[in-house]
Design brief:
The chain is an alpha+beta fold. It is 52% helix and 10% strand. The protein folds into 2 domains: 139 residues, no CATH class; 104 residues, Homeodomain-like (Arc Repressor Mutant, subunit A). The protein has 17 helices and 7 strands. The longest helix has 19 residues.
Length: 333
Amino acid sequence: MATIANSILQAHYRQAEQVGYLRPNLLTESGLHLDAVRMGTGRSDAGAFAKWLSTMWQENDDESGGFLPNPVKAGTFAMSMHAIISAGNLRRALLRSAQFYKLMDIGIQFDLTEQGEEATLSLRITGNDSADLRVFYDAMLVLWLRWSSWLIAQPLLLNRVHLPFASPDWSDEYPHMYHCHVFSQQTHCCAVLPSHYLSLPIVKTAKDLPEFLSNAPENLLVHYQQVNSVSALVLDLFSHQPNAIAADQNAVAEQLAISAATLRRQLSAEGQSFQTLKDQWRRKQAMHLLRMSDRSIHDISTQLGFSEPSAFSRAFKKWTGMNPGDIRQSQNS
């Protein structure tokens, strides 16, 4: 059974109470423990949470749950999915989604940019004056991540996430929500991913939409989670290896109790390769060390397996479109 921290439910509960959407009986009818949600303690069934949200949205004709200045009428998300399902690939789907929400003018703005081998999806939300938007930012990012994974029928593994606020009470959930480094108190909100995902074809069709939409938002809370993918397992192994740089495909396959051929086949089915994942892990580690440590660029390049700092700088420039020193300067400015 998939569960979710009640600190997240508490944030949604407080906003519903603030705007007059709250019907306490609805929580218990959905299978939630009212006192636990109010206190923000423990965990709840993700399906029960999804049922409460869905019913509250329908009763109040507002799919934002009261976080935005004007109600987002029921059916808006469904229409956005109909608008993007024929986009052809993920890049065009994201651009269509950004255009859709711009035309709707509901206080949600997406922007997609590409630099080097990375793509950045930026998110800006204009909420109610009284709204605590932290949980809504997280909800929108997770929603985007999981419907993108559904569209391409592959796990979408992020490089990093930037959040424009301090770590909230539910930040312990971030490893399960994003499966990447999360940087708080940033200037803006964005999710950064390898740009190769953008060219992947959309394999779902309009015939798949009715079932998908009939199960939303529960399917987006419970399913399409990257943690269950072989790619995510490999990245997780890299993160826990004392000498990840030296790990080869055979060693990783042995730790997963499968053959190297099986690992290669399963990664290929997810649109990945062992070397691509290793490079993605090095990119994540490089960004994390540059932002969160005072280690020299020489030390970082050595730790990440580069023969010299200049080779690391060239690779980093190719990955991100920036020099390692640019990251350090932005941290100190």
